[in-house]
Amino acid sequence: MSKFPDTRFDDQWIISKRGKKNKIDPLKPYGYFVEKERTVSGSIENVSTILLTNSECPFHCLMCDLWKNTSDKPVPEKSVAAQIEFALSKLPETKHLKLYNSGSFFDNRAIPKNDYKKIAQLVDHFETVLVESHPSFINENVLHFSNLIKPKLLVALGLETVHPEVLLRLNKKMTLNDFERSVKYLTELEISTRAFILLRPPFLFEKEGVIWTKKSIDYAFKIGVSSVTIIPVRSGNGAMDQLKLEKYFEEPRIESLENVIEYGIGLNAGNVFADLWDIEYFSKCGKCLSKRKERLNQMNLFQKIPTRVYCTCLI
What we know:
Shape: globular
Distance between the termini: 21 Å
Radius of gyration: 19 Å
């Protein structure tokens, strides 16, 4: 599986493998919820997350499925603020907020700068606000938005992997130098960063996937990232399904996710989180899935390594 195909994984190829997008409402987010999370300070608190309905990201990454809830055109001005206001009216009060827009918050096509002031007013009662961005959009917009808001700004960036050949084929249009420059820029502004790291991206065997995820964690902390989230890669976006059919991709095992989270926590370099979204995709045993999921959740919250789950499935 480490053999790379001759196919050029560009925008055209990736888009050609897609299905239809979901119906969206530009005035309402496509999701919002509250969950407990360990903060940078080490406390465990409720965090509100709003999944904003937004225009599609201009980068068409090979593994991404976030396009399913996006529009082909920019959403109207004030609509993002309206979505935030709607979600906050439905959610209980918390101290922390995540705004995910299926792309880059600092992309003017996604979040118009004219909306910054209204958004700042809506979030002024939070202690922290986390947004996501591609390194290409880490620019003066960050400083402008940061100066407008009362909460401490946190920024999540997709590192994906430090494997040079795999990163190139993800169509991310980003180098490690680009990523490092963005982290340095944000650090100089005293803005903490979170890195999204993939577990077993395409073209890697299971053991290779684990090794390269660990290398990616090492790299992220070395250059100053504050926390990392490990995302096990799954099919379902069209492109990944095609790669799976051609034997260039397979979902990682839940045991591998446990392995890399244990490794990251053991470094004691910053918070290391497992993305538990659709975690059932990565387990082949219904008997121990709930116990493994809860164990991962406990590691997310307490950053300690509990006793391992043992099961007759022997995964």
